[in-house]
Amino acid sequence: MYKSFDLNADVGRMVYVKPIAVTDLPREVRDQADGLKELFAVHDAEGQQLALVADRKLAFALAVQNDYAPQPLH
Predict the structure, then answer these.
(1) Distances (CA, A) of 68 to 29, 35, 39, 73
(2) Residue 54 within a domain
(3) Reduced to 3 states, what is the DSSP secondary structure of residue 45?
(4) Number of domain units in the chain
(5) What's the farthest any 2 CA atoms get from each other in the chain?
(6) What's this model's pTM, rounded to 2 decimal places?
(7) 25 - beta bridge partners?
(8) In a 10 Å sphere around its CB, with 0-12 CB exposed, 13-18 middle and 19+ buried, how is residue 17 labelled?
(9) End-to-end Cα distance, the chain
């Protein structure tokens, strides 16, 4: 059986995951980065940062656990 899907249905629940160099972050965040060179930010469709986590896999898991559809952003 074929079933049609609305591919735009989750646009409101889409988030973007992008890498951020620790050196580009404010000092208070850099001080908490524990020697990491890169962190991963989760942003909503309007560009607001929702979370900042230590690795890409965690960023995607966090999004999925909160019913968001994560997309990588280069």
Answers:
(1) 25, 29, 19, 15
(2) yes
(3) coil
(4) 1
(5) 56
(6) 0.80
(7) none
(8) buried
(9) 36
Residue 22 is assigned to a structural domain of this protein: yes
- Confidence (pLDDT) at 72: 94
Query: What's 30's DSSP letter?
Result: H
Q: Report yes or no: 42 and 51 within 8 Å, Cβ to Cβ.
A: yes
Q: What is the DSSP letter of 3?
A: -
Residue 5 confidence (pLDDT): 56
Q: Report yes or no on 6 lying in a domain.
A: no
- pLDDT tens profile 35-68: 999 999 999 988 999 999 999 999 999 999 999 9
Q: Are 22 and 37 in contact (CB under 8 A)?
A: yes
